[in-house]
Every structure is written in structure tokens, then in C-alpha cells.
Amino acid sequence: MTQTTLKVEGMSCGHCAKSVEGALSAIGAKGTVDLNAKTVTVQYDESKLDQTALKAAIEDQGYDVV
Predict the structure, then answer these.
(1) 50 phi, psi to nearest 5 deg
(2) How high is the mean pLDDT in each 10-residue block of the chain (66 residues)?
(3) What is the CA 53 to chain-centroid distance, rounded?
(4) In Å, how far are 12, 14, 15, 26 from 51, measured between CA atoms?
(5) pTM > 0.85
(6) What are the contacts of 28-32 at 24+ separation with CB within 8 A?
């Protein structure tokens, strides 16, 4: 498993966190949102996913990965 932390703009509440974590779960990754830091720490299998897929899943929920 690979772990990375992405800076995400636009998250402000528990619903935002659940939305991002759910989107990552749907593609086979495990995300943990830190609303105060505006980050999501993601664990994923590098042989199945890459950072482009992670960013797309988050951005499809309406948030910006910076």
C-alpha cells in the first residue's frame, strides 16, 4: 500500500469529509480527511490506482486538489 497526502480546497464540514472519503472508497482507496488542515491522507494500491485517479475522484465531488 502506498500513502499520500493531498491538499484539498473547498471542504468545510462532516458532509464534505464523508463525500471525499466515500468517493475514494468507491475506487478502492482509503481516505482520511483532516478538515482543519484541508488535507486528505490516502492509502491505495499503486498497482491499481495512481494519483490522477485519486484527484479525479475528489474533483468529481466538487472539490479542488491543489
Answers:
(1) -130, 175
(2) 97 97 98 98 97 97 97
(3) 10
(4) 23, 24, 23, 15
(5) yes
(6) 29/54, 29/57
